[in-house]
Amino acid sequence: MIEVTVPLDDRTYPVVVGHGAVGDLVRLLPAGVRRVALISQPAIPLADPVAASLGAAGFDVHHLEIGDGEQHKTLATIESLCRRFAAMGLTRRDAVVAVGGGMVTDVAGFAAACWHRGVPVVHVATSLLAMVDAAIGGKTGVNLPEGKNLVGAFWQPSGVVCDLDALVSLPEREVRCGRGEMAKYHFLAGDDLLAMPLDRRVARCVEIKAAIVAADEREGGRRALLNYGHTLGHALETVTEHRLAHGEAVAIGLAFAARLAHRLGRIDADRVALHDRVVDHEYGLSSTLPAGVDLDGLMAAMARDKKALNGLTFVLDGERGLEVVEGVSEATVRATLDHFAASTCS
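Predicted structure:
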């Protein structure tokens, strides 16, 4: 096993990575927990074994399932979960355990943050995307029709389990989604992640994110760099009604951000080509916009992005590495988007 620490003073917690890591779940639960609200989806193979093992360890386990798909990542789902917490008598001395991918950890984490103004949560990440990104760092939330993750809370888990055995049955598309976030880490740290064995690769992504979260827990500055590729990525998810999955959309967002940085004179054409090579060839993703995508809708969705404090805001590459750039003119973004669509639409 590899254990990575997310250092947050009295809220510091471990992330356990490895085959069979779920065996460490019980020790990650806070002392004194009696009841566990285990939140998962019907298609999560690990959920039933986790529920059984917690029951065998003496916990009163209530297995609560939520719907599969982004259409269930809503405030209505949070209300449903909280009403089920009430029915089972969940208290602040109990815990929520999320077993699933990024949607499950986002929703379960937000429900845990809301119930009684905060109960402990432990994430058992079962997708690559959740292991390297969504389950780490305490960002939780749900979607509105107007945009992705617009309602949520910062709520750090008590621990995270990344059991690599869960990836064996993961559909190829879900693996690609995780690679989209890994491609982002390539530009954050410059590491050759693909040269590492899987456990070390996942752990290295966690280490990179943990260091950034420790320096800026609530995204007041440096943590926003973790959103590289996400401004257009989230907009694509919204405009396509999530026909594009998160990692797929982020990969396209990386290619677009490189072109925007080039138009602003921050990077040269070779650096743009590097983005395409990393996304397309090294991580096996697409760097092209889907044919027929609504460009006006993309512009409107990007304007509602959570980073948009002073006009359109992007994380962009440059001579000093990645930076948050505020106040990018709408005309510049639209011109870049029009050219991107004309040259890459598939």
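Summary: The mean pLDDT is 94.
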